[in-house]
Design goal:
The protein is of the alpha/beta class and 503 residues long. Helix content is 23%, strand content 24%. The chain has helices spanning 7-10, 167-173, 213-220, 254-270, 286-297, 352-362, 370-375, 397-403, 408-414, 416-423, 440-452, 473-487, and strands spanning 16-18, 27-32, 39-49, 67-76, 81-83, 88-89, 102-110, 123-125, 128-130, 139-147, 159-165, 178-184, 199-203, 230-234, 237-238, 241-242, 247-248, 252-253, 279-284, 304-308, 340-344, 347-351, 427-432, 458-462. It is globular.
């Protein structure tokens, strides 16, 4: 469900063909024209590809290409910014990127509450094509003079796009923070009916947000209960990635803000929920983790959860590493082999070391480093402490200990007598047998704990599917049928069988 980008951004005007007469190594000279203010603070990137269009959303971990980044503070219009050997780079400086031809685009990312690099309030440049050898291509000039367009939203009779300022988060983070959601209502939705509508709060994975409500509505239409159940697709975006609805030292009190500010406003405005039995949680990937987290934090506030292919729910299995192990290392295993973090089928395809290097260029909001921003204490420099050393991969034991407060399996085990009666019959988890990101082992650990304690929960490891294959229309129907049973809803969409045949 990662939403890679607006079609409008794909039309980055006609490229500028740059054949430099210089013979010095490749560097980029970047300016801005003051379109977003005479002085800019944030981060500037150069994205490159051998393909037709450099990615504007960020580097692709499955197909890494040159990507560079540098912070800017009070960067004046017309002032030249140089991207050279001193810039952050995923795999070497600009002059060492290898034979092209290459396309390059500059991106300015403002400090906001979105993990996307190119978002409203930012800028990007025209595409430049570099055909010369990077070792002697000289200086390539890029001008940040194209504003990132506003997100498009077409009105729909069943969809309500909602934004609401968060006083709590804005105060904590000292910048404007806004809650976001897409409310999906049935065709015959009646806002004034006496009985509130049951509601499923849905949380998507990394990179997704509430603008995906239109896509989710199409999926939910496959349910027999889409005429009775409302959905609220929540935004989980923040500057540092997916905030997971955790009250975090770095990202602010996201769960508290949702429960005390946004959820009451949504339920008042749209006549939904208003009681625990009428509220259900669901999500996929990082959203699956967040939905399960919200339930165990507030077990008496929701009727249950469907957590689909959740991100690591046990840090004994943080992707392919046990972070509590003596001499734990995120880069290499006990045999000295590079640790993978993603696979294609059963073949490792992305490794932690290389993904970390990419995340270091993104700096805020990386696919893996986002977990530091959620779970880690604040370092002396005001940033999140790293779980592991980004040069050696060695896990910081003090940080790993701090992370234990967010280890879902450990929380359940440590508070079992208190949580067991509150969670009985409420937990549904579906994992992939061959999860693309090695997430199944943590779910299996929890399944074994539940089996040992004869606990009423439903955990399924779906055979022969990967991370994305877990979520489909069949599962939506299964989730809704479970929710309907808890509320004794009648299936009003069952098709009659027709008259009996003549004898």
């Amino acid at each position: 469900m990662i939403e890679f980008f607006l079609a409008a951004l794909a039309m980055v005007q006609e490229p500028t063909l740059l054949e430099s007469e210089e013979t010095s190594p490749l560097v980029f000279s970047i300016t801005h024209d003051g379109l977003k203010g005479d002085s800019l603070t944030g981060r500037v990137y150069v994205s490159m590809t051998r393909g037709p269009l450099p990615p504007l959303s960020g580097p692709n971990p499955h197909n890494p290409e040159p990507f560079f980044g540098i912070d800017v503070k009070d960067w004046k219009a017309g002032e030249v910014l140089i991207i050279d050997d001193a810039a952050d780079a995923g795999s070497g400086p600009p002059h060492a990127i290898g034979e092209g031809p290459w396309s390059a685009v500059a991106i300015y990312r403002a400090i906001n509450d979105h993990s996307r690099l190119a978002i409203e309030g930012g800028l990007y440049s025209e595409k430049a094509i570099i055909t010369a050898d990077p070792s002697e291509a000289g200086t390539v000039n890029l001008s940040l003079d194209i504003p990132v367009p506003e997100r498009e939203w077409k009105e729909h009779k069943n969809l309500r796009l909602v934004h609401m300022d968060s006083a709590l988060l804005s105060d904590e983070l000292n910048r404007e923070i806004t809650h976001g959601a897409c409310v999906i209502v049935p065709d015959d939705y009646d806002p004034s009916r006496v009985e509130p509508y049951p509601v499923m709060y849905w949380i998507g994975g990394y990179g997704s947000d509430h603008y995906g409500g239109r896509f989710m509505k199409a999926l939910f239409t496959g349910s027999d209960y889409d005429d009775q159940i409302c959905r609220v697709v929540l935004s989980s975006q923040c500057y540092n990635g997916h905030h997971l609805f955790v009250d975090s030292e770095n990202n602010g009190s996201r769960l508290t803000a949702f429960l005390t500010e946004f959820l009451p406003a949504l339920e008042k405005t749209y006549n939904i929920g208003k009681s625990p039995e009428m509220r259900m949680l669901a999500g996929h990937s990082d959203g699956g983790w967040a939905a399960l987290w919200m339930l165990i934090q507030q077990p008496e506030f929701f009727s249950g959860v469907w957590s689909l292919a959740p991100s690591p729910i046990s840090f004994n299995h943080f992707f392919t590493c046990d972070i509590y192990e003596d001499q734990a290392n995120m880069f290499i295993d006990a045999e000295g082999n590079d640790r993978p973090i993603a696979r294609n089928g059963l073949t490792p395809s992305v490794f932690v070391r290389k993904l970390t290097a990419q995340d270091d260029v993104v700096k805020n909001g990386g696919i893996l480093s986002m977990y530091d921003w959620v779970f880690s204490p604040i370092a002396n420099d005001g940033r999140a402490m790293y779980l592991y050393d980004h040069e050696t991969g060695a896990v910081n034991k003090d940080v790993a200990t701090a992370w234990k407060a967010y280890d879902i399996v450990d929380i359940l085990q440590s508070n079992w007598e208190t949580l067991r009666p509150k969670l009985k019959g409420k937990i549904n988890i579906v994992a992939a047998e061959y999860d693309t990101y090695f997430l199944e082992d943590a779910v299996i650990e929890l399944q074994e704990f539940f089996n040992e304690h004869h606990f009423d929960a439903h955990i399924q490891i779906k055979p022969n599917v990967n991370h994305g294959g877990v979520f489909n229309t069949i599962l939506i129907r299964q989730m809704d049928e479970w929710f309907a049973r808890t509320l004794n809803l009648e299936n009003k969409q069952v098709k009659p069988m027709g008259p009996n045949p003549a004898p």
